[in-house]
Amino acid sequence: MTRPPLPLHTTTRLLSHLQATRTYAATLWNTQLRELVRKGLFQQGLSLYRQMFRSGISPNAFTFPFVLKSCANLSLPVPGAQLHCHVVKTGCESEPFVQTALTSMYCKCCRTNDARTLFDENPESRRLTVCYNALIAGYVQNSLFSDGFAMFRAMRLAGMEVNAITMLGLIPGFVGPMYLGFGISVHCYNVKYGLDTDLAVGNCLLTMYVRCGSVELARKLFDDIPEKGLITWNAMISGYAQNGLATHVLDLYREMELSAISPDPTTFVGILSSCANIGAQNVGREVEQKIECGGFGFNPFLKNALINMYARCGNLVRARAIFDDMPEKNLVSWTVIIGGYGTHGQGDIAVELFDEMIGSGIQPDGAVFVSVLSACSHAGLTDKGLDYITAMEWNYGLQPGPEHYSCVVDLLGRAGRLKEAMELIESMTMKPDGAVWGALLGACKIHRNVELAELAFERVIELEPTNIGYYVLLSNIYSEAENLEGVLRIRVMMRERKLKKDPGYSYVEYRGRTHLFVAGSRSHAQTEEIYAMLNRLEDLVKKLDMPDKNDQERKMKDSLAGWECTVKSWRLHLHS
DNA sequence: ATAGGGTTAG
C-alpha cells in the first residue's frame, strides 16, 4: 500500500513549482489587498491579510505597505507591531517602501518614539528622503513641532534632497503669526515636482496662512495660483468661513460656480456654516438642492451642517425634520439641534433633547454643555442649568472652561442672583475671560446694579479693550441710572481710544429676497409700514404683559413669548 | 504593483 518514493529530480521540480505557485498566490492576494485599501476598506484589508497568513502564504515586500496602511488608518498599534515582527521574519525590513510604511504606521498610532527607534536603528533610512518625510510629517501631526523642525534641519545637514512632500509634512507645523513670512522661503526651495504636488504645496501654504491669522495673505496666494484645484477652492472657502467672513464665502462660491471645478461635501460644509452665521436661508436651501443632486445626501457632516443652518436661521421645523431623519445622530447633531432650540427661546425642548441624548448613551463633551447651558439661561431655567454644570463635572468628569462659566454667570445674572454670580467668578480656578465679565455686566444692565457694573467693566476692558459693546453697555447702565457724569466719562474714554461704533445691521429674508436694515436708516421703501407693524406688535406684547385675566390670555402670552425679544432687536436695528 | 502629502460640521 505504500507509495514508491518520488525520484529526487521530481521532488525538486515539485518544490520549485510550489514555490512559484506560492509567489504567484502572494501576488494574487496582494492585488486583492490593494483593491480593498484603495477603496478605504481597511478592516477588510486586515482580515484578508490574516486569511493569507493562515493559508501559509508568505507575505512579501509588496504586501506590507498595504497592511501597514490599514493599521495606520485604523490606529491599531498592536497589530502594527505584530506586522513589524512579520516584516523582520520575512527579511523585508531593509525595503525602503516597507520602512516608510512602518514609520508612518507608528506615527499615525501616536508612537513617534517607536518610529524614531526604527529610523535610528536602520542606517540606510538616513539615506532615504521618504524616511525623513514620514518622520517629519509624523512629528508635526502629533504636535511635536520642534522635533519635526529638528528632523528637517538634520535632513538638510545630511545633504538630503528636500522635495514637495517634505514641505507638505512640515508646513502644518507652522502655527502662529511669526511663521507668516515662511511662505516665501518655501518657494525658495524651488524643488522640482509634478504639477499636482506643486498645487498641494500651494494648498497647504494657503491653509497655513489662514491658521496663522492672515486671510489676506491666503487670498493673495489663492489669486496667484493659476490652476486652482477643488482643494484650493475648499481651503479658501473654509478659511473665510472659519474667520466669520460669510459674505466673502458666498461671493467666492458664486465665483466657483463659474469655474470648471464642481463643489464637493467639504465645500458645502463651509458654505452652510456661513449661511448659518448670516441667516442666509435661501442660499442654504439652494445648497441643500445641490447636495441632493450631487448624491451627497447621506454625508453626516452635511446633515449636521444643514441642521445647524436651518436652526440658526430660525427654521426649527426643517432642522428638526432632518435631525429626526438621521439614522445615526452623533454628538454634533445633538449639539446643533439643542443649540438651535436654545437660541430661539425653546429651552424646555433643548433640555428634553439633552436628556434624550444622555439616555441614548452618547457621551457629552464641553461643547454640548455650552449649548444646553445657554439654552437654560435664555429660557430662565436657572436651577436646571445649575444642575447641569454640577453634573458636567461630577457625573461626566468634564472640567468646565471659561465658556461654561460665562453661561452660568449669565444664568445666575438673568435670575437676579448677582451675588452668587460674583462668587462663582471668584471661585474659578482659571482666569476668567472677557465673556465671563461681559455676562456679569449684561446682568447688571438688566438688574440696574451700577456698582457691580463698574467692577465688571473694569475687568472686561482689561481683557478686551477694543470691544466697543461693553462701553456702550456701561454707558446705557449709567444713562438708565441718570448718572450723566458716568455717561460722559465713557464717551471721553471711547474718544480717547478712538473707538467708533459701526452701525448695527441685520438681514431679513422675505419671499426669496434679502433686505438689509441699518440702524437709524429709513432707506427701505416700506419703512413706514414696517414701523407701524412694529408698533402694533409692541402694543400687543405690552398688553399681554398685564396680569393674566384668564387661561386663554395666558396661553396667548406663552405663544408670543419668543416674539418679544425679536421685536425688541428689530426696533434696535430700525431705531437709532 | 508597493511608501511620504493638501480641504471637512457644533
TrEMBL record:
- PROSITE patterns on file: PPR (PS51375)
Residues folding into a coiled coil are: none
Which Pfam families does the entry mention?
Answer: E_motif (PF20431), PPR (PF01535), PPR_2 (PF13041)
Q: State the Gene3D superfamilies in the record.
A: Tetratricopeptide repeat domain (1.25.40.10)
For this UniProt record, give its keywords in alphabetical order, as a comma-separated list.
Answer: Repeat
Residue ranges of the PPR repeats are 25-59, 128-162, 229-263, 299-329, 330-364
Question: PANTHER family attached here?
Answer: PENTATRICOPEPTIDE REPEAT-CONTAINING PROTEIN
Protein name in UniProt: Pentatricopeptide repeat-containing protein
Q: Which organism is it from?
A: Ilex paraguariensis
Organism lineage reads as:
Eukaryota, Viridiplantae, Streptophyta, Embryophyta, Tracheophyta
